[in-house]
Amino acid sequence: MDELILIDKNDQGIGYMGKEDCHLGNGVLHRAFSFFIFNDNNELLIQRRSAIQRMRIIFFRLHGNLKSL
Hints:
The protein is mostly beta strands and 69 residues long. The chain has one helix at 19-22, and strands spanning 3-7, 13-18.
């Protein structure tokens, strides 16, 4: 099972928890990252989610960790 790094509100690591348990909707904070790929025309590559991947649509959110370059 994949383990994620749990963090406090100051982004300090406080432990580990399995990915499944982190995404039960209990407000668990964990480290994550975003990866963006642009082509020469400044078009953003959008990845399609796997049709067989477990989905919890209710928990999808917009992330506020974006910075303009």
